[in-house]
Amino acid sequence: MLCEICPRKCLVDREKTLGFCKASNHIKIAKFYLHQWEEPCISGENGSGTIFFSHCNLQCVYCQNYEISTGGKGLEITIQDLKNIFLYMQKQKATNINLVTPSHYILQIKEALKEAKKEGLTLPIVYNSSGYDSVEGLKVLDGLIDVYLVDMKYFNDQYAIRYSKANHYFEICKKAIQEMYRQTGPIQIKNGIMEKGVLVRHLLLPGLKEDSKKILSYLYHTYQDHIMISIMNQYTPTSSLKDMKELNRTITKKEYEEVLAYALSLGIEQAFVQEDETADESFIPDFSLESLKKDMDQIKDKI
Ligand code: SF4
């Protein structure tokens, strides 16, 4: 089967050749753990049962997880292993199952979720992506995903092409969010936990506050309060940005406050915002393969 599961439509047989994302048909993950630092309605008290998939169908020059996204660091696992991780997270009392960067493994995730649900998985399932998803790919998961936690990174394509090698990013992301919303409907929150709906994240980039405002305007005028929005200032420059001097700084307090004031002026009353000190490399998880191997061994005894 030739791969066209994401908008890049590489049409390669991933058993023999690698496409843009460099993922084969075999699932590779870099980490799974109870993540405490997502938005409170996602992490809950016990943490979100987060699985980081290796590889990515974007190549953001500023990616904080570049060793797993572009570098492909991780361990190959089977669909059965993935199902076991879901069930293990449930035993650990995770708030939900949080699939991070899943777009290139949609077909495999579908199989693992179906099996896990047959074996008693009842947690809400969160699909956590960069927003570069195709409607056809998302339809494969129709009925299996409860919460879409999705980035909307750029309004203007020139930035999407320069910083993420992504053509038509806004149009593609816009249609993806429409499909996500069609599947989940308006947000449903119970006891502070998001059980259904779409939460759109927007990360401010240095110098792009006008682009940010266009995104917020689009989202609010399209969905009003039926989706949640998270406006993030945690952008942290990485050492690989030598050729992109404009990205080589954090977001200023003034820039962030201007965008938040704009959000308020639109009428957005409920949005997640971040504190000043969130731009810090220490928030990047440790993707050690040794600890991942130990964690994989550990779940064998506990399922
Ligand atoms: S998932 Fe990977 S191989 Fe498939 S179309 Fe997307 S980028 Fe290409």
Note the main attributes of this structure:
globular, binds iron/sulfur cluster, 35% helix, ten-stranded mixed β-sheet, TIM Barrel, 303 residues, alpha/beta, 10 helices, single chain
Structure explained in plain terms:
With about 300 residues, this protein is α/β, with parallel strands linked by helices. The protein has a single domain (about 30-280), classed as TIM Barrel. About 35% of the residues lie in helices and about 15% in strands. The protein is built from ten helices and ten strands. Strands 1, 2, 3, 4, 5, 6, 7, 8, 9 and 10 form a ten-stranded mixed beta sheet that branches. Helix 3 packs across helix 4. The relative contact order is 0.14. Bound molecules: iron/sulfur cluster. Iron/sulfur cluster (SF4) binds near residues 3, 9, 21 and 57. Iron/sulfur cluster binds near residues 6, 9, 20, 21 and 57.
Brief overview:
The chain is of the alpha/beta class and 303 residues long. It is built from 10 helices and 10 strands. It has a single domain, classed as TIM Barrel (Alpha-Beta Barrel), CATH 3.20.20.70.
CATH classification, class level: Alpha Beta
Tally of helical runs = 10
What Rg is obtained from the alpha carbons, in whole angstroms?
A: 18 Å
Poorly predicted spans: none
Strand content: 15-25%
Helix content: 25-40%
**Total domain modules:** 1
| Distinct small molecules bound, one entry per kind | iron/sulfur cluster
Shape: globular
The CATH superfamily is identified as Aldolase class I
Distance N to C terminus: 33 Å
- H and E string: EHEHEHEHEHEHHEEHEHEH
Biggest beta sheet summary: 10 strands, mixed
| Nearest-integer average pLDDT | 94
Give the second-level CATH assignment, the architecture: Alpha-Beta Barrel
Please name the CATH topology: TIM Barrel
**Strand segment count:** 10
What structural class should be given to the helix and strand makeup? alpha/beta
